[in-house]
Design a protein that fits this description.
alpha+beta; 22% helix; 19 strands; 7 helices; 4-stranded antiparallel beta sheet; globular; 13-stranded mixed beta sheet
Length: 344
């Protein structure tokens, strides 16, 4: 652990806590676009962990996770360095949009370019100033607009250090996800930096269970890394999905669902019905695998071919379902990490 860490042109010494605005780009109205960063440094040696949210500007659950995380008095016991970036895609966040003004997906733009478009420049700055100065990272996401995800970790579980972090986080489900070209995870992996992607909830919505699980998950990882004092607590041991696939609408119409996020489904089990506005010509939507619902659309109006349910397969769907039930019980209980009233 170095005596000084420099973010932008700001030096942060051991024992200091500082907020930094990283300039990203000039907008056409003359305003400057900045990315807010908070750096907290312990006095004792330890890893450098970055925690980021709103890489997609409309995925706001993670913003609240980081806000609550930064309020915890527990951070006074920090070893090493925590770099918190609650809003990476500031432009998208301000405009309630997943994308940047060039209509590009930031999570397909890494490692970026110093002279590229806004997406490329933002990716380049985040990589240069945050990722490259870290030992590990956690990136917080939600489902897309009108689509919810069961709390889950996506990561390269073939890497032992990443697997250790993923198990510590404490979601009911882990997915061994391939690296995607231009993604933040790929960019970190190329630099040998283990990283988790936490998926939970829906875009443009706060979900209290997902937020609580996110705060506790980050703290669990920090304890596992030796950044915070070790402590035994009731948590969930995740099960790893063998594979996952989407069930798509076979026709257009009005959707009536029969299963919820976290439900177990059997092969050929009824998931939903799709009918016209008169209630006629109803068609059944059934699962082609036995597994667990880890994602679903929240829109009742569907078009033929729309992705409706995301089903994950496990060695034991019953075990996976039991993990989900335990997870919900654990995060229904308020602890000292839940510093705010629940979001309702």
């Amino acid at each position: 652990m170095s005596e000084i860490i420099t973010i932008g042109d700001i030096d942060v010494a051991r024992g200091e806590r500082m907020q930094i605005d990283l300039p990203v780009a000039d907008l056409y109205n003359g305003a400057r676009l900045h990315m807010p960063v908070e750096v907290i440094r312990g006095r004792r040696d330890g890893p450098v962990l970055f925690v980021s949210a709103a890489v997609h500007g409309d995925e706001i659950n993670g913003v609240e996770v980081i806000r609550r995380l930064l309020q915890l008095s527990l951070l006074k016991k920090l070893r090493g360095t925590l770099i918190a970036v609650p809003v990476v895609n500031v432009y998208g966040f301000l405009n309630l949009s997943r994308y940047l003004p060039d209509r590009r997906d930031l999570n397909r733009s890494f490692p970026g370019s110093e002279r590229g478009s806004v997406a490329g420049r933002l990716a380049w700055i985040f990589n240069q100033e945050i990722v490259s100065k870290s030992d590990c990272g956690i990136d917080l996401h939600t489902g897309a607009i009108h689509r919810s995800n069961l709390p889950q970790i996506r990561a390269n579980l073939d890497d032992p250090e990443t697997l250790r972090m993923a198990r510590a986080f404490g979601t009911p489900v882990m997915i061994n996800a391939n690296l995607r070209d231009g993604s933040l995870r790929e960019c970190a992996a190329e630099q040998g930096i283990p990283m988790l992607l936490y998926e939970a909830g829906e875009a443009l919505r706060f979900d209290e269970t997902s937020i609580r699980a996110g705060v506790r998950g980050v703290i669990n990882v920090m304890r596992e890394l030796g950044m915070l004092p070790a402590r035994k607590s009731k948590s969930v041991e995740a099960v790893t999905a063998r594979s996952s696939s989407w069930v798509r609408a076979g026709k257009s119409g009005i959707l009536t669902t029969h299963v919820a996020i976290g439900d177990r489904v059997e092969k050929n089990g009824l998931l939903a019905k799709i009918a016209d506005p008169f209630g006629q010509n109803a068609a059944e939507l059934r699962s082609d695998v036995r597994g667990l619902v880890i994602g679903r659309t929240n829109l009742p109006l569907v078009t033929e071919g729309d992705a409706i349910f995301h089903i994950a397969r496990f060695e034991s769907a019953a075990e996976a379902g039991a993990k989900v039930e335990l997870f919900q019980e654990v995060h229904d209980i308020k602890t000292e990490l839940d510093s705010d009233r629940p979001v309702v």
